[in-house]
Each structure stands twice: as C-alpha cells, then as structure tokens.
Amino acid sequence: MIGAIAGDIIGSVYEHDPIKSKDFPLFGRSCCFTDDTVLTVAIAKAILGDGDYRRTVWETGRQYPAAGYGASFIDWLRSMSPEPYGSWGNGSAMRVSPVGFAFDTVDAVLREAERSAEISHNHPEGIKGAQATALAVFLARKTRDKARIREEITYRFGYDLRRSVDEIRPSYSFDISCQGTVPEAIVSFLESDSFEDAIRNAVSLGGDSDTLACITGGIAEAYYGAIPRHILCKVRELLTEDLWLSSERFREKHGIL
Fold it and tell me: In the CATH scheme, what architecture does the domain 2-253 have?
C-alpha cells in the first residue's frame, strides 16, 4: 500500500496541471499526500481492526478535513450517519489496494473490495472499479504474471486492456469515474518495467494524476516488490506520524517488504 501512497504523492502536483510526458521530476516541490492516501490508510486500519470500513473511513477522513475530497464525499464525512450515495467515482478504487494485500483468495478479495466500496460508492461501476483494482493487486502479488492479470481483469470486468499508454495518452483527459480511470491505471502498470516506470506511465496520461498513480502504484508494488529506497524515504518525510505508523503496522502484519 506504500506504493499507492507514493503514487498519490507523486501525482498530486499534476492533478490540476496535467502533463503528457514521462519526463518530469519525481517529487515536485509542492507534492503532498491527498485524500487518496488518507482513505487508503483508513481501509488498512479497518482491516487491521474490526473490519468496519464505514466507521474507520469516516473517522480517519474527518481527521484530515482538507485532504482534497470530492464534494459528495465531503457531505458524507460531515454526516453523523453517512449513507452510500450511488457514486461511480474512482474514490472506491483509489483506496482499495490494502484489500489486495490482506486477503488470500479471489472470493475474499472480491467480497472485501465490494464491502469497502459500498459504504459510499455503491453504484455498480464504483464496486466494479474497486474489485478490479483489488484483484489486480492480489494477482500481481500471487502470480507475478502480467498476461494472466490482463486476461482475468478483462474477463471479469470487461475493461479494455488492449490499448497501450501511447494510444491512450493523446485523447485522454481528466476523468473521475471508475470506468474512465481504472482500466487506464492498470494498463499503466502492465506496460511498465519497474515501479517508477509504472508511476511515470500513469502520470503521463494527463488525467486525474494522483488517483491514476495511486491505483497503478498499489498494483506495481505488489508485482515488483520493495519500493525503491529514495521513494520510500520521501514518502516517510511527507506523511504524518499517524499515517506512517498505520501503514507500517499494516505492512508488518501482512509481510509486505
């Protein structure tokens, strides 16, 4: 899940200033963690605890009120009894990577991904995006087989993963939907040759960069293993103590390098 957090931080400076190139400073001067990181850690904390995604996401999100949430999710956080609001947004996919690391069967991964999504993003596309992302993380971790990941995700979810990053990039633009984010993020991983290359692919698409790179980063970490030290050190520098310690506890519990 540190891979997802690193992707969020790296992509944060390009969310509203998109680029169409892989040639950019890995950590811009104003890079920071956003809601993608906060909610990814919240899902990890729920898994470490009692599995109550709704309560843990609500409590953790309220601790970081200026993290950059969407308007509907802000209303969800402000409610004293938050209910799902039919969202198909990519928020369900950006926060789900811990599920792919923590559970050890396909059925469990799909079930928990749905549970984590439906607290807010209970539209079929919101659930589908979370499940596809979590399953990609799980398969990357278990099989290290990109061809199988492409085949399984295409078969189960109908996403078009045949396109290349170069084919997607020219016409791609900012898109907050799961259906317009998750396939592109997975392709960014599938075409990569390292963790850093995967993140650069995602950011270079010029879309919702922090979320694209967050989704890609979780899958890439599961596939490539240990995060490069210079990236890990920068993530540690930029996270609050609470977010870092929660991430570390999750990594230790689930044997993530």
Answer: Orthogonal Bundle (1.10)
Instruction: Determine the Cα–Cα distance for residues 116 and 129; give it in Å rounded to an integer.
Output: 11
pLDDT tier, 198 (very low <50, low <70, confident <90, very high otherwise): very high
Residue 12: DSSP 8-state = G
Q: What is the number of alpha carbons within 13 Å of residue 171 lying toward its C-beta?
A: 5
- What is each CA distance from 240 to 31, 126, 146, in whole angstroms? 14, 29, 34
CA 96 → CA 76, 169, 236, distances in Å? 18, 25, 20
b/e map 177-198, b = 16+ CB within 10 Å: bbbbbbbbbbbbbbbbeebbbb
Domain edges within the chain: 2-253
HSE at residue 140, side-chain half, CA atoms within 13 A, is 30
Q: Mind giving me the DSSP string for 159-220?
A: ----S-HHHHGGG-----BSTTTHHHHHHHHHT-SSHHHHHHHHHHT-SSHHHHHHHHHHHH
Token pair for residue 149? 């990941």
What is the model's pLDDT at position 35?
98
Residue 164 has pLDDT above 80, yes or no: yes
**Confidence band (pLDDT; 50, 70, 90) for 143?**
very high
164 phi/psi in degrees, rounded to 5 = -100, 165
